[in-house]
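Heme exporter protein C
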Amino acid sequence: MFAFLANPARFMVFSAWAAPVLFAGALILFAAGAPWALFYSPADYQMGETVRIMYVHVPAAWWSMGAYAFMAGASFVGLVWRHVLADVAARAAAPVGAVFAAVCLVTGSLWGAPTWGTWWEWDGRMTSMLVLFVTYLGYIALWSSIEDEEKAARLAAILCLVGAINLPIVKFSVDWWSTLHQPASIMRSGGSAISGEMLGPLLTLGGAYLLLFGALTLMNMRSAIYRRRVNSAELKKARQ
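Tokens:
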């Protein structure tokens, strides 16, 4: 599958229908999950209605990390096998992941103020998530600051792989250090600690975020490939 899509021509054919399908799927899941989360799931017995921020915050946290893991995988492929489409994929995913990380940080502060009595705390989870967001910005800035795309791809891939060290820190920070955040509530031994009434809309919106990430990344990749084709055509024309 991956070898098949590694050909840019085949990728363009695939993404021409895959991107709108993923985007439509994301809209359907958002349309189902948002009212479920806002109006039909119960309030938390301790946090009250504030818990509804979870339905925006948690999927954003999941897929800001998932997007970065995707970038790290693509960067590794691009760095080792020098595959241009892998570099394009990593670069295309970065702005989507950065927005998810920003949403996670902002909603986390909005959730923390009434719940913990503070907008920000330099604990392991918040600090490592901030580092993830800054790494996203650094990666995007590095690509934009170097005109030679091959050189930019190599340096950005190295930065991305070094930054991937932060992913397990984000994930396990609540276990390694004292933090305001609660420990893992869903993927843990003994099963989920969240009631099914809350877990249903949370997973639905998590799926919506995932499909949105896929759709936007494919769209960004298509734009990048079109841009490369135009630049190549202009360069070829200039040489004639």
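Residues 19-179+195-238 form one domain.
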